[in-house]
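chain below, 134 aa
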Amino acid sequence: MRSLALILARSLAFASCISFAGATAHAQSMEVNGKFGYLGEYELSATVTAQSFGGRQEFSGPMTVRHVGLCTHNGPNESQGEITLQFTNAKSRVEATLAFDGQRCRYNGKMSEKDVGELFCSDSAIPVSLWFKM
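prediction:
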């Protein structure tokens, strides 16, 4: 009886360790969504994973940008790119770099669907909102 209880306890401990390890690995990646353009005519989605560089943690990963506006536009309806995020403080502020369609754009602001900031691409500033998918 005692050995059965010991086996069950060890099995439970092992299962808990595996579950915790899986949760930790999952916590290292995040889904990011966003919209940009004067009428919100572009949407972006990305899955980013954590990496450390020089003691500073950043998240980066592949990104897809889709044109969802009603009007026509120059360029493809969907583009692949890369996004990099570095958090600057605890108030959801982030420095982001978006690379797609041969351009590199920068954003410095809040990670919130409700807040609109400016995405700087080349010589223009475009309204943008970035947030984490819940």
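Residues 1 and 7 are 10 Å apart (CA to CA). The beta strands are 29-36, 42-53, 56-67, 78-87, 93-100, 103-110, 117-121, 124-132.
thats it, cya
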